[in-house]
Automatic annotation (TrEMBL):
<keyword id="KW-0418">Kinase</keyword>
<dbReference type="InterPro" id="IPR050538">
    <property type="entry name" value="MAP_kinase_kinase_kinase"/>
</dbReference>
<feature type="compositionally biased region" description="Low complexity">
    <location>
        <begin position="47"/>
        <end position="71"/>
    </location>
</feature>
<feature type="binding site">
    <location>
        <position position="242"/>
    </location>
    <ligand>
        <name>ATP</name>
    </ligand>
</feature>
<feature type="region of interest" description="Disordered">
    <location>
        <begin position="9"/>
        <end position="121"/>
    </location>
</feature>
<dbReference type="Pfam" id="PF00069">
    <property type="entry name" value="Pkinase"/>
</dbReference>
<feature type="region of interest" description="Disordered">
    <location>
        <begin position="482"/>
        <end position="504"/>
    </location>
</feature>
<dbReference type="GO" id="GO:0005524">
    <property type="term" value="F:ATP binding"/>
</dbReference>
<dbReference type="GO" id="GO:0005737">
    <property type="term" value="C:cytoplasm"/>
</dbReference>
<feature type="compositionally biased region" description="Low complexity">
    <location>
        <begin position="185"/>
        <end position="195"/>
    </location>
</feature>
<feature type="compositionally biased region" description="Low complexity">
    <location>
        <begin position="159"/>
        <end position="172"/>
    </location>
</feature>
<dbReference type="GO" id="GO:1900424">
    <property type="term" value="P:regulation of defense response to bacterium"/>
</dbReference>
<protein>
    <recommendedName>
        <fullName>mitogen-activated protein kinase kinase kinase</fullName>
        <ecNumber>2.7.11.25</ecNumber>
    </recommendedName>
</protein>
<feature type="domain" description="Protein kinase">
    <location>
        <begin position="213"/>
        <end position="470"/>
    </location>
</feature>
<dbReference type="InterPro" id="IPR011009">
    <property type="entry name" value="Kinase-like_dom_sf"/>
</dbReference>
<keyword id="KW-0067">ATP-binding</keyword>
<comment type="similarity">
    <text>Belongs to the protein kinase superfamily. STE Ser/Thr protein kinase family. MAP kinase kinase kinase subfamily.</text>
</comment>
Length: 609
């Protein structure tokens, strides 16, 4: 074990943990909601939410302002829906549009507009394929091929009044267009924008220009939209279609669009075997749809819910892959901000796919995030105690530690605490979550490293790839002659695919992280953290420090899972977060009961008001 692991570990004994546990109070569970089990529910036919279920941010005012998509950072730049751009594709890319339709580019995850260019050289099958958000005509008779050549096009009239300014993006590159679904519920999706989708299968647009992608069964509802299976009846390929209804004068819709747009902006630049692949997006008169790689196994949360805690080899295997995805993401100075079991998908071969990038954010060397985003139980202390200090990529490392505990126990850490009590415990105590005794020393050490309260002390995702807990497993996989997946026990799953051009081996991929442009991000030090503290004041600070007006319009992330087991009072109350307003009042720190339960069908999961 490298010495720095030991140094960083801040070795804790079992007794320490035991002592910490004794100091905790336990607040009972008040209810359970379904998480991924939402899939069994019929999808809503309308957005129906009068308020966002959860925007997962505390940034003031952002929930209602579609202009200025992201109010969370000091960058203060928008995350616009892409604006129309000239369509200059060859024949196989665009076959029709209307006077009211537009091909619009999706660029810039954060408005910072820097280093994404480095993605250009990477490819994973279909990764060189880019798509646009496409405004689709409402009815077929309005299709006019001439419209395709327009240099600009008005945005969808449903989005009038909504700032979709993308001037900050500075991109005018043309993207290939996605295949829109033809759906019984989406009669407008008749304009065809041919492109490859789902792994470089070439154009899947019929000669008539009609999409072969059909919206299929409802997979589940997230905070900001519904997810359906998509099927191409010609190719037999599947995708996941994430959909948000477009209602221009509806705050919920705006918030959902903002969030989905954020996801498009980030995902469209990523290409990695452990990150759900973005295929394209499409704006119709009624919906904004995002086409994603379909991952049929469901989320880690769902697996935990159905099968119980994972064994250590599985945890090792999954953690290695999550880390690989995170290292790639962080190498692009992008932070996920909502790492948790519910946002990590597993394919039938046990391959991990990070998903749900609605919270993801690009950070630069000169900026950091100051808003309050994420899911409470997986949230890093510095996020909760966001007292103008800001935070960086290390928040994902903390959340990874929480996710490992989640995999080991089928509960998130701190689940014995409710609402503000949990936030307080994470943000304002010196405790660390209990680490199950049955885990190996390597696993415990790894978790402790991730859960160091000081973000500066947390290893980076790159460094963690070298940890014995990961290395042992990675070596075992690399040495496996028959690399095909044989079992689901974590010991013999498919090795990571070659993700980048020019990289020759899995080992190489694991051990040679991409260049990180920011010193702050690559190896956050105290010095860097000090630099961060000099940044402008956050519009929204910690809910534990200042329970004032700044929290109006701020939202907490839904802690998706309903971890509760027979005879077990976890204290983790998903209802609080999943369906009820999460009200933080001045007395909330003292009186957790100020979190009020809402009717189960309440549209909003959690919200600070
Ligand atoms: N690419 C995908 N392939 C298969 N299923 C998916 C895919 N993306 C999402 N899902 C499923 O769709 C459902 C909704 O996912 P979504 O990411 O919108 O929200 P979530 O992560 O469940 O919740 P939240 O947005 O509140 O974090 C989940 O059950 C998820 O497992």
């Amino acid at each position: 074990m490298p010495t720095w692991w030991v140094k960083k570990c801040g070795t804790k004994t079992k007794d320490d943990n035991h002592h910490q546990n004794k100091t905790r109070g336990v607040i009972n569970t008040r209810g359970i909601i379904t998480g991924d089990n939402k899939t069994s529910v019929d999808p809503p036919t309308t957005p129906s939410r009068s308020t966002p279920r959860c925007s997962r941010e505390f940034a003031g005012g952002s929930s209602s302002a579609f202009s200025g998509f992201d109010s969370d950072s000091i960058e203060k730049k928008c995350h616009p829906l892409p604006r129309p751009s000239v369509s200059s594709f060859p024949n196989d890319h665009v076959t029709g549009s209307t006077s009211g339709s537009a091909s619009v580019s999706s660029v810039s995850s954060s408005g910072s507009g820097d280093d994404h260019g480095q993605l250009g050289g990477f490819s994973r099958g279909n990764c060189d394929v880019k798509f646009n958000v496409v405004a689709v005509p409402r009815s077929p008779e309005r299709v006019s091929p001439k419209a395709v050549a327009r240099p600009t096009s008005p945005l969808h009239n449903r989005l009038s009044g909504v700032s979709l300014d993308s001037s900050s993006t500075g991109s005018s590159e043309c993207h290939r267009l996605p295949l829109p679904p033809t759906s019984p519920t989406s009669p407008s999706a008749v304009s065809v924008h041919g492109s490859r989708i789902g792994g470089g299968g070439g154009s899947e647009t019929s000669s008539l220009g009609f999409s072969k992608w059909k919206k299929g069964k409802f997979l589940g509802a997230g905070t900001f939209g519904q997810v359906y299976q998509g099927f191409n009846s010609e190719k037999g390929k599947m995708c996941a279609i994430k959909e948000v209804r477009v209602i221009s004068d509806d705050k919920t819709s705006k918030e959902c669009l903002k969030q989905l747009n954020q996801e498009i902006n980030v995902l469209s630049k990523l290409c990695h075997p452990n990150i759900v692949q973005y295929h394209g997006s499409e704006l119709s008169e009624e919906t904004l749809s995002v086409y994603l790689e379909y991952v049929s196994g469901g989320s880690i949360y769902k697996l935990l819910h159905e099968y119980g805690p994972f064994t250590e080899p599985v945890i090792q295997n999954y953690t290695r892959q999550i880390l690989a995805g995170l290292a790639y993401l962080h190498g692009r100075n992008t932070v996920h901000r909502d790492i948790k079991g519910a946002n990590i998908l597993v394919d039938p071969n046990g391959e991990i796919k990070l998903a749900d990038f609605g919270m993801a954010k690009h950070v630069t060397a000169y900026s950091t995030m100051l808003s309050f985003k994420g899911s409470p139980y997986w949230m890093a202390p510095e996020v909760i105690m966001n007292n103008n200090d800001g935070y960086t990529l290390a928040v994902d490392v903390w959340s990874l530690g929480c996710t490992i505990l989640e995999m080991a126990t089928a509960k998130p850490p701190w689940s014995q605490f409710e609402g503000v009590a949990a936030l307080f415990k994470i943000g304002n105590s010196k405790d660390t979550p209990e680490i199950p005794d049955h885990l190996s020393n390597d696993a415990k050490n790894f978790i402790r490293l991730c859960l160091q309260r000081s973000p500066a002390l947390r290893p980076t995702a790159f460094q963690l790839l070298e940890h014995p807990f990961i290395r042992v497993h990675a070596t075992r996989v690399a040495n496996t002659k028959d690399a095909s997946p044989r079992s689901f026990d974590g010991s013999c799953t498919q090795p990571l695919r070659e993700p980048y051009r020019g990289r020759s081996s899995h080992e190489n991929y694991l051990t040679q992280p991409l260049a990180v442009s920011s010193r702050v991000i690559k190896n956050p030090s105290r010095e860097n953290m000090r630099a961060i503290t000099s940044l402008p004041v956050s519009p929204c600070s910690s809910p534990l420090r200042q329970l004032g007006p700044a929290y109006k319009s701020c939202y907490l992330s839904p802690p998706h899972p309903s971890y509760s087991f027979p005879g077990q009072d976890s204290g983790y109350n998903p209802v609080e977060f999943a369906v009820s307003p999460f009200r933080v009042k001045k007395d909330a720190m003292i009186e957790p009961s100020s979190f009020r339960l809402q009717p189960p069908n309440s549209p909003m999961r959690s919200r600070l008001v």
